[in-house]
Write a structure and sequence with these properties.
The protein has 14 helices and 19 strands. By secondary structure, the chain is an alpha+beta fold. The strands form 4 sheets. An 8-stranded antiparallel sheet has the order 1-15-9-17-7-6-2-5, with helices on one face. Strands 3, 4, 11, 12 and 13 form a 5-stranded mixed sheet that branches. The chain is globular, with a radius of gyration of 23 Å.
Length: 448
Protein backbone atom coordinates (compact mmCIF):
# COMPACT_ATOMS: atom_id res chain seq x y z
CA UNK A 1 0.00 0.00 0.00
CA UNK A 2 2.84 2.39 0.87
CA UNK A 3 4.65 1.74 -2.41
CA UNK A 4 1.50 2.21 -4.45
CA UNK A 5 0.69 5.51 -2.78
CA UNK A 6 4.21 6.84 -3.24
CA UNK A 7 4.16 5.80 -6.89
CA UNK A 8 0.84 7.51 -7.38
CA UNK A 9 2.15 10.64 -5.67
CA UNK A 10 5.15 10.91 -7.95
CA UNK A 11 3.07 10.08 -11.00
CA UNK A 12 0.72 12.99 -10.32
CA UNK A 13 3.65 15.27 -9.46
CA UNK A 14 5.46 14.45 -12.69
CA UNK A 15 2.30 15.08 -14.73
CA UNK A 16 1.49 18.45 -13.20
CA UNK A 17 5.03 19.81 -13.20
CA UNK A 18 5.58 18.74 -16.81
CA UNK A 19 2.45 20.57 -17.97
CA UNK A 20 3.08 24.36 -18.02
CA UNK A 21 -0.55 25.23 -17.40
CA UNK A 22 -0.87 22.97 -14.38
CA UNK A 23 2.51 24.19 -13.16
CA UNK A 24 1.17 27.76 -13.17
CA UNK A 25 -1.95 26.63 -11.32
CA UNK A 26 0.19 24.79 -8.80
CA UNK A 27 2.17 27.97 -8.17
CA UNK A 28 -1.01 29.99 -7.64
CA UNK A 29 -2.45 27.41 -5.25
CA UNK A 30 0.68 27.16 -3.11
CA UNK A 31 0.86 30.96 -2.95
CA UNK A 32 -2.82 31.50 -2.12
CA UNK A 33 -2.96 28.89 0.64
CA UNK A 34 0.63 29.36 1.92
CA UNK A 35 0.82 25.55 2.05
CA UNK A 36 3.62 23.31 0.95
CA UNK A 37 3.58 21.96 -2.57
CA UNK A 38 4.24 18.46 -1.27
CA UNK A 39 1.24 18.58 1.08
CA UNK A 40 -1.02 19.77 -1.70
CA UNK A 41 0.22 17.10 -4.10
CA UNK A 42 -0.34 14.37 -1.54
CA UNK A 43 -3.92 15.59 -1.25
CA UNK A 44 -4.34 15.39 -5.02
CA UNK A 45 -2.74 11.96 -5.26
CA UNK A 46 -4.90 10.42 -2.54
CA UNK A 47 -8.25 11.81 -3.66
CA UNK A 48 -10.34 12.24 -6.74
CA UNK A 49 -11.28 15.83 -5.87
CA UNK A 50 -11.08 18.18 -8.87
CA UNK A 51 -8.13 20.51 -8.87
CA UNK A 52 -10.35 23.56 -8.34
CA UNK A 53 -11.71 22.16 -5.05
CA UNK A 54 -8.37 21.90 -3.29
CA UNK A 55 -8.04 24.45 -0.51
CA UNK A 56 -8.92 27.94 -1.75
CA UNK A 57 -7.72 27.39 -5.30
CA UNK A 58 -10.63 28.27 -7.59
CA UNK A 59 -9.11 29.46 -10.85
CA UNK A 60 -8.79 25.99 -12.41
CA UNK A 61 -11.53 23.40 -12.90
CA UNK A 62 -9.45 20.72 -14.57
CA UNK A 63 -9.42 17.43 -12.73
CA UNK A 64 -6.17 15.53 -12.35
CA UNK A 65 -7.25 12.99 -14.96
CA UNK A 66 -7.96 15.75 -17.45
CA UNK A 67 -4.43 17.00 -16.98
CA UNK A 68 -3.05 13.57 -17.79
CA UNK A 69 -5.15 13.52 -20.96
CA UNK A 70 -3.87 16.96 -21.93
CA UNK A 71 -0.23 15.96 -21.45
CA UNK A 72 -0.79 12.83 -23.50
CA UNK A 73 -2.60 14.83 -26.16
CA UNK A 74 0.23 17.33 -26.32
CA UNK A 75 2.61 14.49 -27.12
CA UNK A 76 0.43 12.50 -29.56
CA UNK A 77 -1.95 14.94 -31.17
CA UNK A 78 -0.55 18.43 -30.67
CA UNK A 79 -2.03 21.58 -29.19
CA UNK A 80 -5.28 21.50 -31.16
CA UNK A 81 -6.36 18.43 -29.21
CA UNK A 82 -5.55 20.24 -25.98
CA UNK A 83 -7.85 23.08 -26.96
CA UNK A 84 -10.64 20.60 -27.73
CA UNK A 85 -10.19 18.90 -24.36
CA UNK A 86 -10.44 22.28 -22.63
CA UNK A 87 -13.41 23.44 -24.67
CA UNK A 88 -15.86 22.29 -22.01
CA UNK A 89 -13.87 23.69 -19.12
CA UNK A 90 -15.22 26.57 -17.08
CA UNK A 91 -11.82 28.24 -16.80
CA UNK A 92 -13.19 31.68 -17.66
CA UNK A 93 -10.51 33.63 -19.47
CA UNK A 94 -7.97 30.88 -18.79
CA UNK A 95 -8.44 28.40 -21.62
CA UNK A 96 -5.29 27.24 -23.32
CA UNK A 97 -6.33 29.07 -26.47
CA UNK A 98 -6.56 32.28 -24.44
CA UNK A 99 -3.17 31.62 -22.89
CA UNK A 100 -1.66 31.22 -26.33
CA UNK A 101 -3.24 34.41 -27.63
CA UNK A 102 -1.71 36.79 -25.13
CA UNK A 103 -1.74 39.67 -24.36
CA UNK A 104 -4.79 39.88 -22.10
CA UNK A 105 -3.62 42.15 -19.24
CA UNK A 106 -4.04 45.91 -19.26
CA UNK A 107 -0.35 46.73 -19.75
CA UNK A 108 0.55 43.94 -22.21
CA UNK A 109 2.34 44.92 -25.42
CA UNK A 110 2.44 42.20 -28.10
CA UNK A 111 5.96 41.31 -29.13
CA UNK A 112 4.94 42.14 -32.70
CA UNK A 113 4.29 45.72 -31.53
CA UNK A 114 7.54 46.13 -29.61
CA UNK A 115 9.18 48.19 -32.38
CA UNK A 116 6.25 50.60 -32.40
CA UNK A 117 6.44 50.92 -28.61
CA UNK A 118 10.15 51.69 -28.79
CA UNK A 119 9.58 54.25 -31.52
CA UNK A 120 6.91 56.03 -29.49
CA UNK A 121 9.04 55.94 -26.33
CA UNK A 122 12.07 57.36 -28.10
CA UNK A 123 10.02 60.26 -29.49
CA UNK A 124 7.91 61.26 -26.48
CA UNK A 125 8.84 60.94 -22.82
CA UNK A 126 5.12 60.65 -21.97
CA UNK A 127 5.13 57.20 -23.58
CA UNK A 128 7.53 56.08 -20.86
CA UNK A 129 5.12 57.13 -18.14
CA UNK A 130 3.02 53.97 -18.41
CA UNK A 131 4.07 50.41 -17.48
CA UNK A 132 4.41 47.84 -20.25
CA UNK A 133 4.56 44.03 -20.14
CA UNK A 134 6.29 41.97 -22.84
CA UNK A 135 5.29 38.32 -22.51
CA UNK A 136 8.06 35.88 -23.34
CA UNK A 137 10.65 38.55 -24.20
CA UNK A 138 13.17 36.86 -21.85
CA UNK A 139 12.00 33.33 -22.68
CA UNK A 140 15.46 32.28 -23.85
CA UNK A 141 16.97 33.38 -20.56
CA UNK A 142 14.27 31.56 -18.62
CA UNK A 143 15.09 28.33 -20.47
CA UNK A 144 18.84 28.69 -19.89
CA UNK A 145 18.88 29.74 -16.23
CA UNK A 146 18.02 26.31 -14.70
CA UNK A 147 21.09 24.80 -16.38
CA UNK A 148 23.35 27.86 -16.24
CA UNK A 149 22.68 29.00 -12.66
CA UNK A 150 22.88 25.68 -10.85
CA UNK A 151 23.77 25.40 -7.17
CA UNK A 152 27.27 24.34 -8.18
CA UNK A 153 27.69 27.46 -10.31
CA UNK A 154 26.35 29.69 -7.52
CA UNK A 155 28.75 28.17 -4.99
CA UNK A 156 31.64 28.76 -7.37
CA UNK A 157 31.17 32.53 -7.66
CA UNK A 158 34.25 34.01 -6.02
CA UNK A 159 32.80 36.93 -4.08
CA UNK A 160 30.71 37.78 -1.07
CA UNK A 161 26.96 37.97 -1.61
CA UNK A 162 24.74 40.41 0.26
CA UNK A 163 21.73 38.60 1.68
CA UNK A 164 18.64 40.28 3.11
CA UNK A 165 16.81 38.75 6.07
CA UNK A 166 13.26 39.34 7.25
CA UNK A 167 11.20 37.61 9.91
CA UNK A 168 7.82 37.67 8.14
CA UNK A 169 8.97 37.65 4.53
CA UNK A 170 8.12 41.32 3.96
CA UNK A 171 11.24 43.33 3.26
CA UNK A 172 11.73 47.08 3.81
CA UNK A 173 8.34 47.76 5.31
CA UNK A 174 6.73 50.60 7.24
CA UNK A 175 6.31 49.71 10.91
CA UNK A 176 2.70 50.78 11.62
CA UNK A 177 3.34 51.21 15.34
CA UNK A 178 6.34 53.53 15.09
CA UNK A 179 5.50 54.89 11.62
CA UNK A 180 9.04 54.38 10.43
CA UNK A 181 10.64 52.48 7.57
CA UNK A 182 12.41 49.31 8.67
CA UNK A 183 14.96 48.02 6.19
CA UNK A 184 15.80 44.32 6.11
CA UNK A 185 18.90 43.03 7.84
CA UNK A 186 21.92 42.63 5.57
CA UNK A 187 24.79 40.19 5.78
CA UNK A 188 27.68 39.56 3.39
CA UNK A 189 27.99 35.78 3.05
CA UNK A 190 29.74 33.29 0.82
CA UNK A 191 27.55 32.07 -2.08
CA UNK A 192 27.70 28.52 -0.71
CA UNK A 193 26.10 29.72 2.53
CA UNK A 194 23.37 31.58 0.63
CA UNK A 195 22.55 28.42 -1.32
CA UNK A 196 22.28 26.45 1.93
CA UNK A 197 19.88 28.98 3.46
CA UNK A 198 17.61 29.17 0.42
CA UNK A 199 17.61 25.39 -0.04
CA UNK A 200 16.70 24.89 3.64
CA UNK A 201 13.81 27.36 3.32
CA UNK A 202 12.59 25.67 0.14
CA UNK A 203 12.60 22.24 1.79
CA UNK A 204 10.80 23.56 4.87
CA UNK A 205 8.14 25.21 2.69
CA UNK A 206 7.65 22.01 0.67
CA UNK A 207 7.04 20.11 3.90
CA UNK A 208 4.65 22.74 5.23
CA UNK A 209 6.92 23.71 8.11
CA UNK A 210 6.90 27.19 9.56
CA UNK A 211 9.89 29.46 8.99
CA UNK A 212 11.44 31.80 11.53
CA UNK A 213 12.82 34.07 8.79
CA UNK A 214 13.10 34.55 5.05
CA UNK A 215 16.22 35.14 2.99
CA UNK A 216 16.69 36.67 -0.42
CA UNK A 217 19.46 37.96 -2.62
CA UNK A 218 18.68 41.31 -4.15
CA UNK A 219 20.90 43.99 -2.66
CA UNK A 220 22.37 46.22 -5.34
CA UNK A 221 25.86 46.24 -3.85
CA UNK A 222 26.36 42.59 -4.85
CA UNK A 223 27.56 43.67 -8.27
CA UNK A 224 30.25 40.99 -8.71
CA UNK A 225 27.66 38.29 -8.15
CA UNK A 226 25.27 39.75 -10.73
CA UNK A 227 28.10 40.27 -13.22
CA UNK A 228 29.29 36.69 -12.91
CA UNK A 229 25.79 35.27 -13.45
CA UNK A 230 24.70 37.60 -16.24
CA UNK A 231 27.87 36.90 -18.20
CA UNK A 232 26.63 33.29 -18.53
CA UNK A 233 23.54 34.41 -20.44
CA UNK A 234 23.52 34.93 -24.22
CA UNK A 235 24.33 38.37 -25.55
CA UNK A 236 21.63 40.13 -27.57
CA UNK A 237 23.12 40.55 -31.03
CA UNK A 238 22.65 44.31 -31.17
CA UNK A 239 23.81 44.99 -27.61
CA UNK A 240 27.22 46.72 -27.70
CA UNK A 241 28.47 46.51 -24.12
CA UNK A 242 27.46 43.10 -22.79
CA UNK A 243 30.50 41.76 -20.88
CA UNK A 244 32.22 38.68 -22.22
CA UNK A 245 31.66 35.35 -20.41
CA UNK A 246 33.67 35.11 -17.22
CA UNK A 247 33.94 38.88 -16.75
CA UNK A 248 33.68 39.88 -13.10
CA UNK A 249 34.71 43.54 -13.30
CA UNK A 250 33.08 45.25 -10.28
CA UNK A 251 32.40 48.45 -12.24
CA UNK A 252 30.87 46.79 -15.30
CA UNK A 253 27.88 48.79 -16.49
CA UNK A 254 24.77 46.74 -17.17
CA UNK A 255 22.24 48.43 -19.41
CA UNK A 256 18.96 46.69 -20.11
CA UNK A 257 19.42 44.45 -23.18
CA UNK A 258 15.81 44.21 -24.38
CA UNK A 259 15.24 47.56 -26.07
CA UNK A 260 17.50 49.26 -28.56
CA UNK A 261 18.21 52.38 -26.58
CA UNK A 262 20.23 55.43 -27.52
CA UNK A 263 20.90 56.22 -23.88
CA UNK A 264 24.27 57.64 -22.93
CA UNK A 265 26.45 54.65 -21.86
CA UNK A 266 27.96 56.91 -19.23
CA UNK A 267 24.66 57.21 -17.38
CA UNK A 268 24.37 55.29 -14.09
CA UNK A 269 22.92 51.80 -14.50
CA UNK A 270 22.67 48.75 -12.32
CA UNK A 271 21.68 45.11 -12.76
CA UNK A 272 20.44 43.17 -9.76
CA UNK A 273 19.81 39.43 -9.43
CA UNK A 274 16.91 38.55 -7.12
CA UNK A 275 16.77 35.04 -5.71
CA UNK A 276 14.78 33.42 -2.90
CA UNK A 277 12.74 30.36 -1.97
CA UNK A 278 9.54 32.29 -2.70
CA UNK A 279 6.72 33.56 -0.49
CA UNK A 280 8.40 36.96 -0.13
CA UNK A 281 6.75 40.37 -0.36
CA UNK A 282 8.19 43.78 -1.17
CA UNK A 283 5.72 46.19 0.49
CA UNK A 284 4.51 49.20 -1.52
CA UNK A 285 7.30 51.56 -2.49
CA UNK A 286 8.56 53.58 -5.45
CA UNK A 287 11.92 53.56 -7.19
CA UNK A 288 13.52 56.61 -8.76
CA UNK A 289 14.86 54.96 -11.91
CA UNK A 290 13.68 53.36 -15.12
CA UNK A 291 13.17 49.70 -14.26
CA UNK A 292 13.17 46.69 -16.59
CA UNK A 293 12.31 43.57 -14.57
CA UNK A 294 12.65 40.02 -15.94
CA UNK A 295 11.15 36.99 -14.19
CA UNK A 296 13.24 33.86 -14.80
CA UNK A 297 11.85 31.34 -12.29
CA UNK A 298 8.57 31.28 -10.43
CA UNK A 299 6.09 34.15 -10.70
CA UNK A 300 5.98 37.76 -9.58
CA UNK A 301 2.78 39.72 -9.07
CA UNK A 302 3.09 43.51 -9.23
CA UNK A 303 0.36 45.69 -7.72
CA UNK A 304 0.73 49.10 -9.36
CA UNK A 305 -0.46 52.60 -8.44
CA UNK A 306 0.36 55.74 -10.47
CA UNK A 307 2.76 58.25 -8.88
CA UNK A 308 0.24 61.11 -8.79
CA UNK A 309 -1.56 59.33 -5.94
CA UNK A 310 1.35 59.85 -3.53
CA UNK A 311 -0.92 61.50 -0.96
CA UNK A 312 -3.54 58.74 -1.09
CA UNK A 313 -0.96 55.95 -0.56
CA UNK A 314 0.43 57.94 2.42
CA UNK A 315 3.91 58.51 1.03
CA UNK A 316 5.64 60.97 3.36
CA UNK A 317 9.06 61.44 4.99
CA UNK A 318 9.55 58.93 7.77
CA UNK A 319 12.42 58.06 10.08
CA UNK A 320 14.11 54.82 9.13
CA UNK A 321 15.87 51.95 10.86
CA UNK A 322 17.89 48.93 9.83
CA UNK A 323 17.19 45.48 11.28
CA UNK A 324 20.14 43.72 12.87
CA UNK A 325 20.11 39.92 12.86
CA UNK A 326 21.46 38.26 16.00
CA UNK A 327 20.33 34.69 15.30
CA UNK A 328 17.87 33.01 12.92
CA UNK A 329 14.55 34.77 13.48
CA UNK A 330 15.92 37.19 16.10
CA UNK A 331 16.08 40.85 15.04
CA UNK A 332 16.33 44.27 16.60
CA UNK A 333 15.79 47.56 14.79
CA UNK A 334 18.48 50.23 15.03
CA UNK A 335 17.53 53.78 14.07
CA UNK A 336 19.59 55.33 11.28
CA UNK A 337 21.15 58.67 12.19
CA UNK A 338 23.24 61.26 10.41
CA UNK A 339 26.93 60.57 11.03
CA UNK A 340 27.68 64.28 11.43
CA UNK A 341 24.72 65.70 13.33
CA UNK A 342 23.31 62.58 14.96
CA UNK A 343 19.82 63.52 13.76
CA UNK A 344 17.39 60.87 12.60
CA UNK A 345 17.59 60.05 8.91
CA UNK A 346 14.27 60.42 7.09
CA UNK A 347 13.29 58.86 3.81
CA UNK A 348 10.25 58.89 1.55
CA UNK A 349 8.95 56.52 -1.11
CA UNK A 350 7.23 53.93 1.09
CA UNK A 351 3.56 53.28 1.79
CA UNK A 352 2.18 51.66 4.97
CA UNK A 353 -0.76 50.20 3.03
CA UNK A 354 -1.24 46.68 1.74
CA UNK A 355 -2.33 46.73 -1.90
CA UNK A 356 -3.29 43.03 -2.03
CA UNK A 357 -6.59 43.18 -0.08
CA UNK A 358 -7.59 46.36 -1.91
CA UNK A 359 -7.07 44.59 -5.23
CA UNK A 360 -8.87 41.45 -4.06
CA UNK A 361 -11.91 43.50 -2.99
CA UNK A 362 -11.79 45.60 -6.16
CA UNK A 363 -11.55 48.65 -3.91
CA UNK A 364 -10.60 51.68 -6.05
CA UNK A 365 -12.32 54.30 -3.92
CA UNK A 366 -9.12 56.01 -2.72
CA UNK A 367 -6.86 55.41 -5.73
CA UNK A 368 -6.73 53.19 -8.82
CA UNK A 369 -4.79 49.97 -8.47
CA UNK A 370 -3.84 47.42 -11.10
CA UNK A 371 -2.08 44.07 -10.92
CA UNK A 372 -0.02 42.04 -13.36
CA UNK A 373 1.52 38.60 -12.84
CA UNK A 374 4.80 37.82 -14.57
CA UNK A 375 5.67 34.23 -15.35
CA UNK A 376 9.10 32.90 -16.32
CA UNK A 377 10.29 34.74 -19.43
CA UNK A 378 8.05 37.81 -19.00
CA UNK A 379 9.50 41.33 -18.87
CA UNK A 380 7.97 44.36 -17.16
CA UNK A 381 8.94 47.95 -17.91
CA UNK A 382 8.14 50.04 -14.82
CA UNK A 383 8.41 53.84 -15.05
CA UNK A 384 10.09 55.87 -12.30
CA UNK A 385 8.07 56.63 -9.16
CA UNK A 386 5.25 54.14 -9.79
CA UNK A 387 4.24 52.56 -6.48
CA UNK A 388 4.47 48.81 -6.59
CA UNK A 389 4.01 45.94 -4.19
CA UNK A 390 5.65 42.70 -5.36
CA UNK A 391 4.74 39.15 -4.31
CA UNK A 392 7.16 36.42 -5.37
CA UNK A 393 6.26 32.75 -5.64
CA UNK A 394 8.76 29.97 -6.20
CA UNK A 395 8.81 27.61 -9.15
CA UNK A 396 7.17 24.35 -7.91
CA UNK A 397 9.91 22.16 -9.40
CA UNK A 398 13.05 24.00 -8.35
CA UNK A 399 11.48 25.75 -5.32
CA UNK A 400 13.28 28.89 -6.39
CA UNK A 401 12.20 32.39 -7.34
CA UNK A 402 14.71 34.09 -9.66
CA UNK A 403 14.57 37.43 -11.43
CA UNK A 404 16.92 40.07 -12.75
CA UNK A 405 16.18 43.74 -13.17
CA UNK A 406 17.96 46.67 -14.76
CA UNK A 407 17.79 50.12 -13.20
CA UNK A 408 19.00 53.10 -15.16
CA UNK A 409 18.89 56.87 -14.95
CA UNK A 410 18.30 57.13 -18.70
CA UNK A 411 16.21 55.16 -21.19
CA UNK A 412 16.18 55.93 -24.89
CA UNK A 413 16.87 59.68 -25.12
CA UNK A 414 15.24 60.50 -21.80
CA UNK A 415 16.62 60.99 -18.30
CA UNK A 416 14.68 60.47 -15.07
CA UNK A 417 14.48 64.21 -14.39
CA UNK A 418 12.98 64.94 -17.83
CA UNK A 419 9.49 64.33 -16.42
CA UNK A 420 8.17 67.84 -15.68
CA UNK A 421 5.79 66.65 -12.93
CA UNK A 422 8.38 64.77 -10.92
CA UNK A 423 9.98 67.71 -9.13
CA UNK A 424 6.63 69.11 -7.97
CA UNK A 425 5.56 65.69 -6.64
CA UNK A 426 8.75 65.29 -4.61
CA UNK A 427 8.44 68.84 -3.30
CA UNK A 428 4.88 68.13 -2.20
CA UNK A 429 5.93 64.92 -0.43
CA UNK A 430 8.81 66.57 1.43
CA UNK A 431 6.71 69.61 2.34
CA UNK A 432 5.22 67.42 5.08
CA UNK A 433 8.58 67.37 6.87
CA UNK A 434 10.80 70.28 7.95
CA UNK A 435 13.92 68.66 6.51
CA UNK A 436 14.57 69.61 2.87
CA UNK A 437 14.70 66.88 0.22
CA UNK A 438 18.09 65.57 -0.91
CA UNK A 439 19.70 67.95 -3.40
CA UNK A 440 22.04 65.41 -4.97
CA UNK A 441 20.89 63.31 -7.93
CA UNK A 442 18.67 60.47 -6.64
CA UNK A 443 20.90 57.78 -8.08
CA UNK A 444 24.13 59.12 -6.58
CA UNK A 445 23.78 57.48 -3.18
CA UNK A 446 22.32 54.35 -4.77
CA UNK A 447 25.36 53.94 -7.01
CA UNK A 448 27.86 54.80 -4.27
Amino acid sequence: LFRSRVSRYWAVWSILTRCPYCRAALVRHVHSTRSGAADMMMHVAFSSVPFCKIGTMTTTTLATGHCALQCAAATRFGRQSIRQLCAGSSRTGQTLAAVETRPTAKWDVPLTARAEWEEAASQDVAALGTPAVFRGLAEEWARIVPDAWTNEVLRGVNCKVTASFSKAGDFDRVDPTLDRVEYAALEDLAPSRIVELIEAEAQASALGKGLVERTYIGEARTIEFATALLSLLPTPEWHPDWPTPGTTTPNAKWHQPFFQTAGDPGEPSQATVWMSAGDTVAPPHRDQWFNVSCTLKGTKTFFLVPPEYHTEVEDSPRPCARLERHAPGEFTAVALTDKTTGAEVHTSGHSPLNFRPLWDKNDHTAFPIDAVTLEAGDVLYLPPDWYHQVESTADPVTHRSVAVNFWSARLFAWAVHDNPDRASRLADIWSRHPSPPPTSPPWEAFMD
